[in-house]
TrEMBL record, chains A, B:
The keyword Iron does not apply. SUPFAM superfamilies: lambda repressor-like DNA-binding domains, Periplasmic binding protein-like I. PROSITE patterns: HTH_LACI_1, HTH_LACI_2. InterPro entries: HTH_LacI, LacI/GalR-like_sensor, Lambda_DNA-bd_dom_sf, Peripla_BP_I. Pfam families: LacI, Peripla_BP_3. This is LacI family DNA-binding transcriptional regulator. Residues 2-56 form the HTH lacI-type domain. Keywords: DNA-binding, Transcription, Transcription regulation. It comes from the Bacteria.
Length: 345, 345
């Protein structure tokens, strides 16, 4: 395998010059640049990333922290994030960062931060957010991604989607189909705490769009469940026990909505003939369940791209990024499938 | 944050001694060992993994290559592999390694091998296996994992599950329920090539157990599809068009089986009353579809643990591992759920 020294020798320049030219740094004449690039191409020279990292005392990796990658949203995020990182010559460590108690594993965070990885992306609202600021390692670039409350950490760069808008789209779709007796299944980090909702912005958006149609969602029709298929199934069963007259259910994410489909199937309620169900996220499973789930797609790949690029910008040059950078990426969009239709007369 | 030097100073020994004691290397007296351990505990000293890696010119990471992490089996593998790696102080890079043409991205493999990662786990039979040996980087520990043909690469360490046994269990379950007209949906890397099957061992196991009940599977009842939900749906539709008399379908993995459930739903065939469906793998989705899928669980976490541990053994000391190490881990087991039952009379 050709080395930097091989390129330098053949091009008749120093190793430092080769390095600078190939990294588009420093000053070199156009002739030198052309010569170095030609020789590197001819030799098939590939920069040794670890050698470079060793020399610069840095590691060309970034790490993404989430509760666990079994959640389909997180695996879709990881898929897109790895591709985005590669486009900028970085590699992706994945860190399943929930402790058995469900809070953020800060020991793990610190073991990775600034040592193995040049920067961190911390995802998800379910990782003990109340005290996150105190947990974040100092001096290491961190980007929060896909957080519901973007104003909670005004000093930490954040990439997110317009969840309020996503909620509005879901509510508007049901109302425009003619539904007026609408239930909501909302996800919570702590379903054991009465009224705890993780998806505030989505819920507010839902309520707002429904209010435009004079639809309110009184408490029996708002059920909160843990943020999973099983949580959605249980919450939907409670909702339908308390109010069997609802004709549509909006869930604040797809896993909950898939649970709602299961609850309907168990009760032999036909979807969408007797009950419409809409999700929010657009995980690939939403297209694969039966009936296929109508959902609001939040453009997960855009979230991952935006998060990786903001983090790498911070790593390259923190001065170019505002301390409280908030980037809202993607455009939530209705994906209409088989689980929604007009209410039965 | 306390450094190695802080521990050395307080313990009254050299930095090298601290390093050796904490890594259980070299020779030190019991008293020195006790002293160093005590001081390290008192100070809350955590070894700086990157500093260690820099000093040793190595990186405490391993990389796992698969087509892409969107496949639920791969995300479950990655979840367990990351945990197994952490237990041995390593971190996990994930690499979605399929090129657009579906072969292994060897440029990526080489960029990671021996530079960013100390070793590689290469998963799955769908990554251009014919020429894999030529693609593997020299001098870097590699473990193949979850390969169907364990005798294809006699010189490469491999961790796998007994897929033949898994196939047998699936066939025996259907036969014991009383099914005799049984169809098989088998996965292929190249469904466009007539007769190409990826899951040879599973298929052979299925055929063997069915033969014990004098059940054969003539070609209209064996349909091959691409290894996905959609592939399973299409193959099942072909099978049921050609032979609507089958009372049960065995699929060579869960994604195909979920596709078979979808095909049945579209045709309004009741599962399991009119058609039983069994999968193979045990991905978490198999418990979440409706009806819940009966499957053969191949113990994915054991595969991941076994793969990571074999790789780290190789990294620690190649001499302790036979060149052709083949480890068959886990025990395939029937998980009976709602998608199988006796044939209708």
């Amino acid at each position: 395998m050709p080395t930097l020294e091989d390129v330098a020798k053949l091009a008749g320049v120093s190793g430092a010059t080769v390095s600078n030219v190939l990294r588009q740094r420093g000053a070199a004449s156009a002739a030198t640049i052309a010569k170095v690039q030609q020789v590197a191409r001819d030799l098939g020279y590939r920069p040794n990333l670890v050698a470079r990292a060793l020399a610069e005392r840095r590691s060309p990796t970034i790490a993404v922290f989430f509760t666990n990658i079994l959640n389909p949203f997180y695996s879709e995020f990881a898929f897109a994030a790895e591709r985005a990182a590669r486009r900028r010559e970085h590699f992706l460590l994945i860190c399943n960062a929930a402790t058995p108690e469900g809070s953020l594993d800060t020991a793990y965070l610190n073991a990775v931060a600034g040592r193995l990885a040049e920067g961190l992306i911390v995802l998800g609202s379910d990782l003990g957010k109340q005290s996150l600021l105190a947990m974040l390692p100092a001096g290491v670039p961190v980007v929060l991604s896909t957080w519901e409350e973007t104003d909670m950490y005004p000093t930490v760069p954040c990439v997110t989607v317009d969840f309020h808008k996503a909620g509005q789209l879901a509510g508007a779709h049901l109302a425009e189909l003619g539904h007026r007796r609408i239930g909501i299944v909302a996800g919570s980090e702590h379903p054991e705490i009465v009224g705890d909702v993780a998806h505030h912005a989505r819920l507010a958006g839902l309520r707002k769009s429904l209010a435009a149609y004079d639809v309110t969602v009184p408490s029996p029709r708002l059920q909160i469940g843990s943020d999973s298929i099983e949580g959605g199934r249980l919450a939907t069963n409670r909702l339908l026990d308390l109010d069997p007259t609802v004709t549509a259910i909006a869930a604040t994410n797809d896993l909950l909505a898939i649970g709602a489909l299961q609850a309907a199937a168990e009760r032999q309620i036909r979807v969408p003939d007797s009950l419409s169900v809409i999700g929010l996220t657009g995980i690939w499973m939403s297209a694969q369940v039966r009936p296929a789930l109508t959902t609001i797609d939040i453009a997960t790949a855009s979230l991952a791209d935006g998060s990786v690029n903001l983090l790498l910008d911070l790593i390259d040059d923190p001065a170019t990024v505002p301390a409280s950078a908030l980037r809202v990426v993607g455009t939530p969009a209705l994906v209409r499938r088989a689980s929604t239709g007009p209410p039965a007369r």
